[in-house]
From TrEMBL:
Superkingdom in the source lineage: Eukaryota
Keyword Ligase part of the UniProt annotation: no
Protein name, as recorded: F-box protein 2
Ranges where the FBA domain occurs: 84-265
F-box domain location: 16-63
Transmembrane segments: none
GO cellular component: cytoplasm; SCF ubiquitin ligase complex
GO MF entry, a single one: ubiquitin protein ligase activity
BP-aspect Gene Ontology terms: ERAD pathway; glycoprotein catabolic process; SCF-dependent proteasomal ubiquitin-dependent protein catabolic process
Organism, as annotated: Calidris pygmaea
Length: 277
């Protein structure tokens, strides 16, 4: 309640120091604790001082150090520390369950021709080991077409709209396929970049790869890089599949594993400038 001493008590409260009065090094440490996306999309627009700090190298060098992203290699190659930070943080495989460790989980629009998809352990019957020891399983198709797909929500993965529309970072797609040495098979890959309304803005479709019977069963990588695809990309739809060409009951069709979709280059993008008026 208000009393005779209330006004004096209120008068004795002094305002704390304003953010702009803090030493720049202290302000950088405070800003470095804020999520990177918020720095770029919100903090950068507060004032000219914050804009300059977010655009400068010191803040991003500190964030890289704090998150273990520094080293001789990064210091030599990082012309733009903000881009280097995002590149390092986001360079991950956006395909979930690429090697069948979780059965068919995360794969949608599954077409189970013949006896359907099956997951097998490497190297499999009449097969070869995969080039990477980290891959232990693969998906295998049957005597009619088997297909499966994933749709990646880029915004949900941290690639915000202005970044995708202005920078148009490279989107790199990779897949691995192999036949078994005693059976022929077919393989196809189709990847689409989709808008918010799922309109197709760019597409890559491989030829139908025909692997003959009595092949060497070696694993083959197929890849494609999307660049300069224009604004509006919000989703990536990855689909692959195949079948055997002998129509043998069981799982003699193409084998696929280690699929990946990565965003690998951010260019020299800078967000819209804050007003300094």
């Amino acid at each position: 309640s208000d009393g005779p001493g209330a006004p004096a008590a209120l008068d004795s409260i002094q305002p704390g120091p304003r953010m702009e009065s803090l030493p720049e090094a202290v302000l950088i440490r405070i800003l470095a604790s804020i999520p990177a996306v918020d720095l770029v999309l919100a903090c950068r627009l507060v004032c000219c001082q914050w804009k300059n700090l977010v655009d400068g190298a010191a803040l991003w060098i500190l964030k890289c150090q704090q998150e273990g992203l520094t080293g001789a290699e990064s210091e030599e190659n990082a012309e733009n520390w903000q881009n280097f930070y995002f590149l390092s943080k986001k360079r991950k495989n956006l395909i979930r369950n690429p090697c069948g460790e979780d059965d068919l989980q995360h794969w949608g629009e599954v077409e189970n021709g013949g006896d359907g998809w099956k997951i097998e352990e490497l190297p499999g019957d009449f097969g070869k080991e995969f080039p990477s020891e980290e891959v232990h399983k693969y998906f295998v198709t049957s005597y009619e077409w088997c297909r499966k797909a994933q749709v990646i929500d880029l915004k949900a993965e941290g690639y915000w709209e202005e970044l995708m529309d202005t920078t148009q970072p490279k989107i790199v797609v990779r897949d691995w396929y192999a036949g078994r040495s005693d059976a022929g098979c077919l393989y196809e890959l189709c990847v689409k970049l989709l808008s918010e309304n799922e309109d197709v803005l760019a597409e890559y479709k491989s030829e139908t790869v025909d692997i003959p019977q009595d092949n060497d069963a070696n694993w083959t990588e197929i890849s494609h890089t999307f660049s300069n695809y224009g604004p509006g990309v919000r989703f990536v739809r990855f689909e692959h599949g195949g079948q055997d060409t002998l129509f043998w009951k069981g799982w003699y069709g193409v084998r696929v594993t280690n699929s990946s979709v990565t965003v690998e280059h951010f260019g020299s993008w800078a967000p819209s400038a804050a007003s300094c008026g």
